[in-house]
Fold each of these.
Amino acid sequence: DVKVTQSSRYLVKRTGEKVFLECVQDMDHENMFWYRQDPGLGLRLIYFSYDVKMKEKGDIPEGYSVSREKKERFSLILESASTNQTSMYLCASTPAGGPKVETQYFGPGTRLLVL
Amino acid sequence: GNSVTQMEGPVTLSEEAFLTINCTYTATGYPSLFWYVQYPGEGLQLLLKATKADDKGSNKGFEATYRKETTSFHLEKGSVQVSDSAVYFCALNSGGSNYKLTFGKGTLLTVNP
């Protein structure tokens, strides 16, 4: 079974702090994604990566950056956390080919509270 | 651009009731369509999918049929259980090499015993 893990389930940070959210997948998937989930808004794509060191902006990249130095790890960085970044953050991965290519595998999520 | 519109919740049903959650989409080309489910405290997991018109996806008693003529992918289950209580997301992938998904806003389902 594919396993996608996220470094924290719950996180509390202060405004202005630099925040790192880590995601690791164990199935050698090429594509990895970061979403945020907010009530009434569903899931919105922040960034995705289709290979090591490659990244593309999603629909709401402002205030975020990402890093993918190794294939299995995709990090989301909040350079200076703000209260409007309080949200649930979900990481997902998918292979580049094969029968499972369109199925995204999600981690359990990190609920971030910025005070 | 692509978009997914799904029935607003919350939906509350009694056990063994019939469930329908409506989903319609706007997309260019021939998208693949998905239903994902999020149980309390967990991430999303794929429930079912359909990759072309008239395909029916099914899993765990849930079904959805890809209707190109009505651009719809409604989720149905004949008899819901308390364990089906979750948030359900309709999504589409319009193709290309990056496999990005466009999600609906989600529908919260609560099933009471």
Amino acid sequence: AQSVTQPDIHITVSEGASLELRCNYSYGATPYLFWYVQSPGQGLQLLLKYFSGDTLVQGIKGFEAEFKRSQSSFNLRKPSVHWSDAAEYFCAVGLYNQGGKLIFGQGTELSVKP
Amino acid sequence: DTAVSQTPKYLVTQMGNDKSIKCEQNLGHDTMYWYKQDSKKFLKIMFSYNNKELIINETVPNRFSPKSPDKAHLNLHINSLELGDSAVYFCASKRQSGNTIYFGEGSWLTVV
């Protein structure tokens, strides 16, 4: 069955430090992969997506993610975290042979220390 | 202009009531979805419509009934509300041939 795992429930980093949020997926075909961010009390904003081609994708707000097929991973990175990055981050795989639905990971809550 | 808009954003209601959440998208998309985010922030799809036709119906109680009057609107009606229905409900949409799903701001439903 298709699934997405985000191993880290909660991560705390200092402002200005680098960040990596982990995501592993299980899917038989070539995946469409997404990272969304949810600020407290807000909706889901698309950070970046991978469909094909270059395995390093750039997104908004200085985020990037790297698709590694051999590791079934799509980790999200940012070189220098800002206090405004504190939010919940969701990794998702898109199942376009199943009506386009998204399967989400459990989410990683990011806290940023001053 | 909000691309995917949901109303109401907050809803507090008593058990047993019937309520609706409305969703509209102005992106010209063909496919619309309802997702539920539970108290542990886990997101799961409930329904999907493509050009007003139901294409995904996950294991959702019959008390939940989606309605799509046209391809720009997908409403969610919930009968006989229960405490466990308290959640955030997200509407979303995409082009039929597209791969990117855009989400609304969410509707926070609290059943007391």
Amino acid sequence: EDKVVQSPLSLVVHEGDTVTLNCSYEVTNFRSLLWYKQEKKAPTFLFMLTSSGIEKKSGRLSSILDKKELSSILNITATQTGDSAIYLCVLSSGSARQLTFGSGTQLTVLP
Amino acid sequence: NAGVMQNPRHLVRRRGQEARLRCSPMKGHSHVYWYRQLPEEGLKFMVYLQKENIIDESGMPKERFSAEFPKEGPSILRIQQVVRGDSAAYFCASSGAGDAEAFFGQGTRLTVV
């Protein structure tokens, strides 16, 4: 059974700090790894990673996949209070492209 | 291009009633996924559908739950004879063909009283 483990489970930082969120996975038939941000509503898409070693960037957020280590990290620089959310790491796998969710990292950014 | 639309946003049902949750995928998307988020738990996969086909329903409870995605109209998640334990947020996501990313709807919050 595919598995996604995220760490830390929760993180409290102050505005301006840089954070690194970790995701490790076990998978039978890897297709892609996705990161989502979930506030009080639906998860919003951040990144989709399919190739190892290629960093994806969007503003202050960036992410990279390491297929050898079966892991991915999500970096957020110069954090803002609006970054407070649950960050979900999601694995897409198998011929049916089933999505397996990690438990999420609860990030709290204090002013 | 409207996003994934789910309705209703909130649904209250008494025990034993039926709940019907609707999901209209993004324009051009033919893949629909349903997820359930129980209180204090993460999102759990329920079912993956393409038009008129159930591709993977390994996450669906064996009884009372069913899903469809007809040729015309939204995808429907149907829960018969609801129980208190069905109270949860139900999210729908859609994607285009291939390994495109999935986009989520706003969810339907089902409360069973």
